[in-house]
C-alpha cells in the first residue's frame, strides 16, 4: 500500500516529502564506526564488484537523488541505484580504486544509515517503526484523556466558576506530572528529527513542532510556579496526539510498499539437478549453477536458469513469462527461460546463464528500475508543505520581535509566539491527506480493491491513458471449449477417456466439458504431441493435428486439439480465452470518461486482434516481451501520457512498475501483484472503473481539505500574532481544524458517481 499521501513533512536531511520524522532515528551521526562490508562484495568475472546495502532513513526522491549523486561522485563508482520501496542500494564499483568501507561511510556522512542488505532485516525495521509510532500515539492519547480531568475544572473558571488559587495550581501540577513525561516520550519522533536537522544546519517541519511543544511546556511550568491563571499542558499532549495520528495512518499505508523483485525468488528453484559426466545426478545450489552445466528438468519442475534444450521433448507452460495460457511444445535446440514450467516430458538443458543473469533476474532489475522512477513522483502534499517551515518560523519570530518592540515583557512576547506556533501547527495539514486516504481505501476494500500504495489514488486520478494486458485481464485467463455444439456427446465422451489421462491444460478442459468419468486404462502420453489409447479395439489419439494424422492446409491461429479414431472422421476441439463479462462496458466507460485505451499482449496477433475488435479498440500490440511492454510504457510517458497499466503475468510486472499507476487482478502472479499499486478481486473488470471514480472523488476531497487548512491559517495566524489567542485557545482551534478536515474526508463514504465528474473537472 511503497507511497503515500501523508503528513508530508521534510526529513532530517532537509528533503521535502518525508512523512515520518521518526526515520531520522535510523540515521547514525557522522563518524559512527562502520563494520567492514568486504565480505558482502560480489565479484564478477570481469573484475568489477557489486555491493548491496540497506539504506535507512531514505523516504523520498530528494533522499534518493542525494545518495546516488554522492556515490557517483566517488572515483571508481560506475553506478549507484537506490530502490525506495525496499531500501536496497546497489553499487557497482572498481575494487582497485575504492574500498567498500568508503561507500558505507559516504552514505552515513550524508545522514543515512547503511549496512549490508538483508530483506528480512528491512521488514523487521519497518515493523519496529510502526510499533514505535503506535506506542507513542497510545501514550499521547492516554495522557490527553487524563490531563483533561484536571484541565476542565480550570477551564470552568472562564465561565464564572470560582476556584482557589491553590486548587488551580494543584491541578496544574497534576497535569504537569502526566503531560511532561508523556510529551517527552511521545514526542521522540519529532524531537530527534528536529535535532538531527539542526545539527546539519537544516530545518524541517519537526522544528516548529518541537519548538511549540518545548515552549508550551516551559511556559506552563513558569505559569504554574508563579501561580498563573493558565497552563498549557493539555495543549502539549493534544498537539502530539493529533500529529501522531496522521503519521501512524501514513505509516500503515507505506508499509505495503512494492516488493515485487523479492517475490520473483519464489519462481526459481532453490537447487538445480545437475547431470555429471558419468550421468549421475546431484543437487546444486542455484547460485552455483554456471553456463555449460547440464541440467535435468522433470515434469512439474520449473526451469531453474536460462538454457537450451539438448534432449527430450515436452509442453511448457510459459504463462508466468508471457502471460499466455496456451502450452508451447519444445524440442532439442530450443531456448527456455528461467521460470517456465515443464508440463509433460523429461528435458535435458544446457545452462546458458547463471541465476544472476537469467531472464527472471533481468525482470527483477526492470521492476526495480520502474519502482525507482515512480518513486520520484511529487505529491500534492509535498508541494503544499514545501513553504510551511520558513513561513511559520518567520511568523513566530516576527511576533516575538514585534511585541518586544511594543514594550511587552519577554514572557508575553514568547507566549504570543508560542500561540502562533501552536495555532499554525500542521495538524490539519497532516490529517488532510491521510484522512481522505484511509476513507477512500476502506471504501475500495469493500468494493474488492486492495490499495497497496498510499499515493496510488492521487496518481490514478491524474491518468489520461489506460493500457490493458489481454489474457487474464480483459479475458478470463482460462481456455474454454468454444465449439461444444459442433461436437457430439459420443465423440466428447470418447475423447474425455484420453483427456483424463493427461495433465495437458487443454486436455483438462475437454475432461471438464465431459464431466466426471473414467480414464482409458491403456493410455500413454507422448511429450509435446498428445495422448493415445486403444478404444474398442481401435487406436485413438487426442493431440496435435500432425500427430493425430490430420493434414491441414494452413493454420488460422486457433488453439485446438484433434481427436481421431480408426474408421471415423476426425473431431476438432477449438479453445479460446473468452472476454470478462463486463470488459466491453468497462472499456466503453473509460473512453467516455475521456481516457484513451490500448492493449499490450504477448499473445499471437490473430488472438489479440479478435479481442481488440470485440472491444472496439484500434490500438493494440501483440507478441510483446517484458522489455517491449516496459519500453512502450516509457515511450507513452515520454510523449506526455499519464498511464494506468492493468496486467497479471510476470511479463507484465516491469510494465506495472514503470506505469504512472498500476493494477493487477487477484489471480495475477505474485510478482505482478507486488509491483502493482492496487489489486482487485473477482471475475469482473468493473473494480478498475470503481477505483478511478473513487480516486477522482478523493482528489477533490484532498484539495478541499487544503483549502480549509489554508483558510484556517489565514484567519487564525493574524489573530494569534495580535495576542488575542492564548496557547490554550490555540490548541482548541488547532483541534477544531483537524476535526473539520476529518469530517470532510468522511464525506467520501457516501459520495456518488456524479461526484467523480466533479473531481475530474477539478
The total count of strands amounts to 29
Radius of gyration: 32 Å
Q: Please name the fourth-level CATH homologous superfamily of the domain at 258-267 and 358-376 and 449-476 and 579-681.
A: HAD superfamily/HAD-like
Low-confidence stretches: 1-34, 256-267, 374-378, 752-762
Would you mind describing this structure in some detail?
The protein is an alpha+beta fold and 762 residues long. Among the domains are: 258-267 and 358-376 and 449-476 and 579-681, HAD superfamily/HAD-like (Rossmann fold, 3-Layer(aba) Sandwich), CATH 3.40.50; 269-356, Distorted Sandwich (Calcium-transporting ATPase, cytoplasmic transduction domain A); 480-576, Calcium-transporting ATPase, cytoplasmic domain N (3-Layer(aba) Sandwich). 48% of the residues lie in helices and 16% in strands. It has 27 helices and 29 strands. A hairpin with a 4-residue loop joins strand 5 and strand 6 (88-93). The two termini are 25 Å apart.
Tags for this model:
Calcium-transporting ATPase, cytoplasmic transduction domain A; 7-stranded mixed β-sheet; Rossmann fold; single chain; Calcium-transporting ATPase, cytoplasmic domain N; disordered C terminus; 762 residues; alpha+beta
Write the layout of secondary structure elements.
Elements: E1 9-10, E2 16-18, E3 42-43, E4 49-56, H1 61-72, E5 77-83, E6 88-93, H2 100-109, E7 113-116, H3 119-155, H4 165-186, H5 188-199, H6 206-225, H7 233-254, H8 260-263, E8 271-275, E9 281-285, E10 294-297, E11 307-311, E12 314-317, H9 319-322, E13 328-330, E14 335-336, E15 341-342, E16 347-351, H10 359-374, H11 380-385, H12 388-405, H13 410-423, H14 427-446, E17 449-451, H15 456-460, E18 465-468, H16 470-474, E19 480-481, H17 489-499, H18 505-514, E20 524-526, E21 530-535, E22 538-543, H19 545-548, E23 559-565, E24 571-576, H20 583-592, E25 596-600, H21 605-615, E26 620-621, H22 626-638, E27 643-646, H23 653-658, E28 661-665, H24 670-675, E29 678-680, H25 686-721, H26 727-746, H27 753-761
Parallel strand pairs: 18-25, 18-27, 25-26, 27-28, 28-29
Antiparallel strand pairs: 1-2, 3-4, 4-6, 4-7, 5-6, 8-9, 8-10, 10-16, 11-14, 11-16, 12-13, 12-15, 17-29, 19-24, 20-21, 21-22, 22-23, 23-24
